[in-house]
């Protein structure tokens, strides 16, 4: 099934991360990512384990590549197996997708094909699915069966679980944290509504940006330390302990302030309402219905909190199948309709407006990342919603999930690129091309 596309790039040992044209952005200290396609040597693994710390992982170098492809070897893991017969995806390959161009940040205008093999792109894999059929799939630096970190493309998993609880009448998005979790009544989260957590506007100091990632005392870094078992002030904290320590800095709803700690609040809310571990809720409501090629792995902190904001891994096709749940072709990947029209409407109709989107760090950053300013805003853990109803979620180090429900289109990719996130600039050109009209 995969053989033609597996071997296409087998001789391209120079295929690393984001780049093209010149070698200006190629890091001489990095190993070309294609060289890891056959695994890691014992010497490499010993070296990466000795460098396993938050700054090193966020940097996007070789240690990050190893972590992103061997995550279950490093974290407690909830293994969500395939529980229904695998639903094979038909193929109708459209080579012309590879000729679509984008203006990259550092290497000029490149076709997607050229981007994938450029030594500075650090691209690992991309898949495009239209009407339930695979129309483009390339693996320049990954095997189709390899698990890879989703990073923050996982965040919509948390909103979907909340929406399934809403469907069952167990919660509304207008309820507050204090109403749903009485133990949190004395915290600054108490009066924050679920909808403001879903939309990344709680007004708390849980924001995640360049400044907070560089601050060891920030709620963001303390959350990551708790998840990874690293100490803060000579003690190990739990994720709930850190989040309880967060403080209000403005009224909720005022500003788009993206943050993984905010997403983790959705995990704790879902567990409090559903009275089951979060991974079990995800399995019950979502994953047990999906006929994927392989499992979904939810990685957890030492205290057992699912790091659902981004420490989730699977094959690339599995990520794409999650996107298919939001399309008319859901029945080609699942035994029942998980994402109902009502859930989809809450996402697409719930945007707060472009002015809100731009009032913060991430709105302008997302515009630059996509080289596009036509989106309306974010909503329910998705990073951008466009007037045509298309939805996009990005992940750290250049992962992505793009869904066009109206065009029945899904695009997903994996990579490990921090300095140049131009991979995202191919998404709208692909989706808005005339290939899917």
TrEMBL record:
Keywords of the record, alphabetical order, are:
Signal
Q: Does the keyword Signal apply?
A: yes
Keyword presence, Transmembrane helix: no
* InterPro entries in the record: Beta-lactam-related (IPR001466), Beta-lactam/transpept-like (IPR012338), Diverse_Enzym_Activities (IPR050789)
Q: Where is the Beta-lactamase-related domain?
A: 126-426
Q: Which residues form the signal peptide?
A: 1-24
Q: What is this protein called?
A: CubicO group peptidase (Beta-lactamase class C family)
Give the organism the record lists. Aliiruegeria haliotis
């Amino acid at each position: 099934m995969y053989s033609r596309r597996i071997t296409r790039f087998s001789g391209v040992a120079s295929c690393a991360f984001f780049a093209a044209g010149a070698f200006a952005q190629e890091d001489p200290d990095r190993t070309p990512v294609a060289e890891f396609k056959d695994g890691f040597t014992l010497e490499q693994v010993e070296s990466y384990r000795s460098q396993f710390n938050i700054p090193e992982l966020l940097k996007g170098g070789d240690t990050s590549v190893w972590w992103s492809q061997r995550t279950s070897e490093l974290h407690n893991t909830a293994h969500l197996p395939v529980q229904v017969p695998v639903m094979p995806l038909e193929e109708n390959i459209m080579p012309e997708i590879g000729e679509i161009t984008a203006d990259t940040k550092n290497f000029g205008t490149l076709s997607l094909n050229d981007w994938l093999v450029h030594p500075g792109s650090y691209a690992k894999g991309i898949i495009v699915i239209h009407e339930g059929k695979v129309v483009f799939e390339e693996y320049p630096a990954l095997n189709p069966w390899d698990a890879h970190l989703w990073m923050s493309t996982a965040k919509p998993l948390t909103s979907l679980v909340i929406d399934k609880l809403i469907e069952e009448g167990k919660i509304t998005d207008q309820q507050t944290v204090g109403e749903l979790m009485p133990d949190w009544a004395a915290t600054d989260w108490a009066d924050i509504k679920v909808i403001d957590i879903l939309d990344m506007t709680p007004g708390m100091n849980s924001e995640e940006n360049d400044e907070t990632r560089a601050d060891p005392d920030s709620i963001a870094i303390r959350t990551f330390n708790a998840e990874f078992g690293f100490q803060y002030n000579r003690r190990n904290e739990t994720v709930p302990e850190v989040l309880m320590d967060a403080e209000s800095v403005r009224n909720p709803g005022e500003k788009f302030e993206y943050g993984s700690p905010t997403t983790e609040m959705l995990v704790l809310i879902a567990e409090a309402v559903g009275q089951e571990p979060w991974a079990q809720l995800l399995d019950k409501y979502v994953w047990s219905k999906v006929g994927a090629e392989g499992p979904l792995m939810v990685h957890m902190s030492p205290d057992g909190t699912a790091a659902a904001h981004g420490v989730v891994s699977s094959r690339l096709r599995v990520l794409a199948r999650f996107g298919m749940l939001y399309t008319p072709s859901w029945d080609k990947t699942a035994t029942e309709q998980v994402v109902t029209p009502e859930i989809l409407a809450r996402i697409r109709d719930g945007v707060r407006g472009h002015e809100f989107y731009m009032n913060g760090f991430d709105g302008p950053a997302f515009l630059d990342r996509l080289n596009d300013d036509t989106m309306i805003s974010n909503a329910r853990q998705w990073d951008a919603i466009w007037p045509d109803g298309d939805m996009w979620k990005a992940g750290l180090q250049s992962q992505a999930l793009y869904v066009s429900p109206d065009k029945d289109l899904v695009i997903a990719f994996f990579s490990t690129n921090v300095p140049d996130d131009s991979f995202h600039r191919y998404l709208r050109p692909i989706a808005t091309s005339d290939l899917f009209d």
